[in-house]
Write a structure and sequence with these properties.
With 251 residues, this protein is α/β, with parallel strands linked by helices. Helix content is 34%, strand content 16%. The chain has ten helices and eight strands. The protein has helices spanning 25-28, 66-69, 74-86, 101-112, 124-133, 146-154, 168-177, 197-200, 216-228, 244-250; strands spanning 13-15, 57-59, 93-97, 116-121, 137-140, 158-163, 178-186, 207-210. The strands form two sheets. It has a six-stranded parallel β-sheet with strand order 5-4-3-6-7-8, with helices on both faces. Helix 3 packs across helix 4. The relative contact order is 0.15.
């Protein structure tokens, strides 16, 4: 289109979903979720064609397939930002609530950062997947108390907990599983809950933080992790189906 200067026809790209102003200090830093004048989202991800601002198109290296590339933004980038901001590192004990795509990616990246992981869910099939991602301990919350298991596993409590479910009960458990001075991060889209801040936070010096989507630095760091560690979004996939357009034409 007119005014495009960085890209050429045929370039391989990943589309960043959030449309930002491109002018503020946060946009200049690649911290687009902090933009002071957000302008909506890029729509049409399931279509054959879509229109997006040039600044929303991030280069996709030739060694990364399209199938992987479309998962490097939200599926890998969102948990990477959560783990990066929390400061997860070598030897840390991390509890991940939820073994959906984001939770499984959180487990993968935490292991790649040198952490020990306990994954929590209510579906054994997903817990088995978490074990394949490198989780040291898996807990079915319908049969076992995650908090009790976390303290039995760590003695003092986890250093970090991540709620990737958005479920209020899971977030409460995530707050309870961390040690005094630990940190819980809300990754899932929790729309509201009630808890006792004194009991859950203040009396134990626990920090509660939140995070949303990814920044440019997380995208490039995920590419590096894919090339140098076992992190791979395709490890999460169970099935691949023919493209929708082909199915419709066949019908």
């Amino acid at each position: 289109g007119d005014g495009v200067s960085r890209l050429r026809v045929g370039d391989r790209v990943v589309v960043f979903n959030l449309i930002t102003c491109g002018q503020c200090a946060y946009c200049a830093q690649g911290r687009f979720t902090y933009c002071t004048d957000k302008q909506g989202s890029v729509n049409g991800g399931y279509g054959e064609l879509l229109v997006a601002p040039e600044r929303n198109l991030w280069p996709l290296p030739d060694d990364i397939s399209y199938e992987r590339g479309c998962l490097f933004s939200d599926v890998l980038g969102t948990p990477h930002k959560a783990l990066r901001l929390a400061g997860v590192g070598e030897g840390d004990a991390v509890v991940v609530f939820g073994c959906g795509p984001i939770g499984l990616a959180t487990a993968q990246i935490a292991v790649a950062r040198g952490a020990r992981v306990m994954s929590v869910d209510m579906v054994d099939y997903r817990l088995e997947a978490a074990a394949r991602m490198g989780a040291e301990v898996t807990v079915n919350a319908e049969r076992e108390d995650p908090t009790e298991r976390a303290f039995a596993w760590t003695k003092l409590g986890a250093d970090f907990a991540f709620d990737c479910t958005g479920d209020p009960s899971a977030l409460l458990s995530a707050l309870e599983t961390v040690r005094p001075g630990g940190r819980t991060t809300l990754v899932g889209a929790n729309q509201g809950m009630q808890f006792n801040p004194w009991q859950c936070l203040s009396s134990r010096d626990v920090t509660l933080g939140g995070t949303w989507y990814l920044h440019l630095e997380d995208y490039y760091e995920c590419l590096r992790l894919y090339r140098t560690t076992a992190v791979d979004p395709l490890r999460i996939l169970t099935h691949q189906v023919p493209e929708i357009g082909r199915i419709m034409r066949m019908a």
